[in-house]
Amino acid sequence: MPAPPETPEPAPKSQPPVITPIRVVIGLCLFIPFVALLWVSSYSRIEPTLVGMPFFYWYQMMWVVLSAAMTMTAYKLVKRDNAQRRAARGEDGAR
């Protein structure tokens, strides 16, 4: 005698998509400084100078500040995204 057909399991709760616009922004905040400093030929020159400092140096120092700001922005966005996901799942957010 054939086995009775299995009843399908109930569908799990709908979860938010893994790739969201906020996560794309987070990725860009982390990726842009990486590319800006990796592409050395774009800033490997002396002119224009800033207060007598060659472009090569002040460009890199500018990216130190920008990278810190973009990393902080990405961190805050991740915290907010995680809080929203926990709230959507009904967790208390005690962490």
Shape type: elongated
Mean pLDDT: 87
Largest sheet: none
Number of strands: 0
Sheet/helix structural class: mainly alpha
- Which runs of at least 5 residues are low in confidence (pLDDT < 50)? none
Cα separation of the termini: 53 Å
Helices, by number, come to: 2
| Beta-strand content | under 5%
Helix content: 55-70%
What is the helix/strand order? HH
Write down the Rg: 24 Å
Describe the structure in your own words:
The protein is an all-alpha fold. Helices cover 56% and strands 0% of the residues. Helix 1 runs antiparallel to helix 2 (55-89). The longest helix has 35 residues, at 55-89. The radius of gyration is 24 Å and the shape is elongated. It starts with 20 loop residues before the first helix and ends in a 6-residue tail after the last helix.
Short description:
The chain is mostly helical and 95 residues long.
